[in-house]
Design goal:
The protein has about 70 residues and is an all-alpha fold. It has 5 helices and no strands. It has a domain of about 30 residues.
């Protein structure tokens, strides 16, 4: 029996301060549970077509935070 099957039908979200290891832990957790991993920063960059530093410089922090939402 696959004891992690119920988890794979859900989304697991890691929340914490910048630099505490959410991405690192998230990748390891996704790998251990055989689930896809998505990093919010990467998703924001892909949607905006620019890097986070570019978003901050060109549009400000408020625009970045809106993109995170």
């Amino acid at each position: 029996m696959d004891r992690y099957k119920p988890l794979r039908a859900r989304t697991i979200t890691l929340v914490g301060l910048m630099g505490v290891g959410k991405s690192s832990v998230g990748r390891r957790l996704a790998n251990a549970l055989d689930m896809p991993f998505r990093d919010a920063d990467n998703e924001v960059e892909a949607a905006a077509g620019r890097t986070i530093p570019e978003i901050f410089a060109d549009m400000g922090e408020a625009a970045f935070r809106e993109g995170e939402r």
